[in-house]
Amino acid sequence: MSEVMKYFLREFNISHIRTSPYHPQTNGSCERFHRTMKSMIRSLSDKFENSWGECLPWILFAYREIPVQSLGFSPFELLFGRNIEGPLSLLKSTWLSQASFAKAKPNVVKFLLDLREKLRTCQELALDNAKDAQSKAKVWYDRQARERSFDIGQMVLVLLPVPGKALHAKYQGPFKIIGKRGPVDYVIEMPNSRRKHRVCHVNMLKAYVPRDWQPLCLNTVINQSNVPFDSQDHDLDFGPVTSNTKDTFSLDHLPDRDREQLTRLLSQYPDIFNDNPGKTTLCTHKLELKPGTRPMRLSPYRVHPEKSEQIRKELDLMIKMGVIEESNSPWASPVVLIPKPDGTVRFCVDYRRVNDVTLPDAYPLPRVEDLIDKIGRAKYLTKIDLSRGYWQVPMVDDFVPVSAFVTPHGQFQWKFMPFGLRNAPGTFQRLVRKVLTGLEMFTGAYLDDIIIFSNTWEEHLEHLKLVFDRIRQASLTLKKAKCVFASAEVEYLGHVVGLGKVAPRSAKVEAILKFKRPTDKKQLRSFLGIAGYYRKFIPHFAHIAACLTNLLRKNQKFVWTEVQDTAFLDLKSRLASHPILRPPDFPLPFGLAVDASDVAIGANLFQVAKTM
After folding, report:
1. Using one digit for the tens of pLDDT, what is the confidence trace for 264-298?
2. Closest CA to 406 of 355, 339, 350
3. At 161, phi and psi to the nearest 5?
4. How many CA within 13 A on the CB side of residue 231?
5. Do residues 590 and 609 lie in contact, with contact meaning Cβ atoms separated by under 8 Å?
6. Within its chain, how far is the Cα of 88 from the centroid?
7. 242 forms bridges with which residues in the sheet?
8. Cα distance between residue 49 and residue 42, in whole Å
9. CA distance 81 to 117
């Protein structure tokens, strides 16, 4: 601020009120003025298209003549101590014979004294009205607001404009708080920025939570000797093969005779047990875009140097596998790495913008309950998993450029179906159903999780042989490390099934038991989502969780009381008691139990079982 401006403010007793940059909410009166001015100019521009600029002085005059709601006075009254009469006011006074243009003030001294008294009175009344308006606005704002504060020295993320896109902002950092100005403004240290220190409003800050990030295991050891070769076709379908995590199948739970028979069967299909994805001939994937769609180009996400190295290794591996290739497409989507439970990573592309312009595929996915009920009282269960299943479905050549993605290491495009596309699950489920057509009586599949169930050992060997033949004919491959053969119980779709029983998966129950008390609606919605997946194991789930679901209502303030805490612990304890259900026996009769209360209604099909 210049010295002249400082002198002007000091002489006229004007207070300098600071506001946080990029946070216009703290400058409400100015923002309200801009909003009103834009509405008035818009009305004029519709009527006077070529001369609206000449009317700007009259717009300002009209605005300054009208009383401000929060102050109770017009700007003219607060500045001049009297109300300025505009055209409408003068016309009204003339009609009512209230105007007296000949009357003058008695003298200058009395006029100034009256003016000073009017200004003082207007100021006092304006301040009282402003306080009342501010208190009402604060009560209204605090209905959805919650107090936030940070400590000096704490690391935070700051909402800053995107370089080159002044109207777009994203959280960047972390940065360190080095000071506090007022109750809601903080001084942030930015050593790598042109401005080393920046004052930010609390609403622009988010606590930085450091993560103990561990390097992800990629299993990228290449074994060229295991590359299958067909003398009739020199274009290899599978590319280089990654080393298997297990060299032999885990069959120790079987008797010697059964283990020998199963090992002999598995040895007949060495080509389908391969960590490298195959190339199916049963279907392809295409993208049906909305008419008139133009290419979309996004910049790659910034990543940690270690993750950047992981992306490079994944790119090298996928190029050797032949699932991607370099691209010059006008389309571009950023990439993300998703850790998987087995320690490897799932290379995914953020296709949200592409999915918005993709026509949906209505092909249905199977219901989890139906798949679990099919297993029934089977004694032998085998679970197989396709090796990077999506990468075994070729892309239609015309839509390969749409799948292009960008990384810190360049631009590439998919030759096979990637993860993240809107219609990819439907395409893959359609493929699996084609593979298992005619085998539905002893197989079930949810995407690439396939289960084979039988009542006798001989039937199970025959069923396995039929499924393996279909997989070989479809040119698909299985991941040996994730296959479980001829077991009495298996973990399938979040449940433990087998021996005529269905129970929640222990790892999921453990995660629910370790879930901390929610502190906001997002955390509560997450807890109810994972607990609701097992609601069939909890009698009266809706009634118990009613007080929790009520907190998710629109305009409902999040207040955690003893009632919610009791319901939260009750749901945990009921799952911790290891509940077990029995799959339905369809030849037996069913019963229907219904119940209702003031807050919930429910119905259950049940069967009377003599034994478990």
Report:
1. 999 999 899 988 888 998 999 998 899 989 999 99
2. 350
3. -65, 145
4. 0
5. no
6. 55
7. 222
8. 10
9. 9
